[in-house]
Write a structure and sequence with these properties.
CATH architecture: Alpha-Beta Complex
Number of domains: 1
CATH superfamily: Nucleoside Triphosphate Pyrophosphohydrolase
Number of strands: 12
Distance between the termini: 28 Å
Radius of gyration: 18 Å
Number of helices: 6
CATH topology: Nucleoside Triphosphate Pyrophosphohydrolase
Shape: globular
CATH class: Alpha Beta
Helix content: 25-40%
Largest sheet: 8 strands, mixed
Order of helices and strands: EEHEEHEEEEEHEEHEHH
Length: about 240
Amino acid sequence: MKEYEIIGLGDISLRCLNKDLFHPAVDKEMLPYIDRVWGDALHKSGSKLFDGSLFNFESFTVEKDTMVVNGSFINYKYFWVQKNKNLDLNITPLGISGMLLIEINKKYVVAFAKRTSVNLQYPGYFELIPSGGIDDRGGRGEINYHDILKDELYEEAGIDRTMINSISTLGLIFDLRDKVYDIACVIRSRVTKKEIEVFIQNSSEYEDVRLVNIYDIQNFLETNRGCVVPTSICILEIFNKLKTI
């Protein structure tokens, strides 16, 4: 049984509906409890947690050939409490996930990396890189999520914008297990294997980078069955369908 759903394929326009951070529509009586749980978590983590912004998916429509995704920014702490205390606070995050496609010696490979234990979602799982949340560095109104993805790629793999050939949007997908939406993209880059491996060695989020030939991906997934993030499997399925090389 699949752990993901393809919501739609093609280009996406991402729009933020609010100007400032606000708490989601929850019972006001819950707010003191949420603040107390978050405060305890901050204390136990040694302040390693950070209450930044998170994009909460609300709806989508289709305008001509473009899917328009709407949502609002909320404080990250609400999602953390919902996730860790098994609550329903009406939060469905929207993130962004890329498939890094590299040409090495006239052969195409994709980059996987194993998530470390510091990750809230899927620790110890392999996933395509990069991936991350939509935060308010992308601005309000119409959000340039390709710019956010470029920043994620640099933060996670040390690949700066000058090493990116192109970015194309594949579509919108939903992780049925973790209840998270993602905008899926393909990033074409001329980075070398050594450059990625050196940076991943110093990463707190990732370890054990693998560059897998596109014709060996199915074998990689079989070998690591049950240990690959569903979103990554979904992206590979879409990529295979669209034949985007």
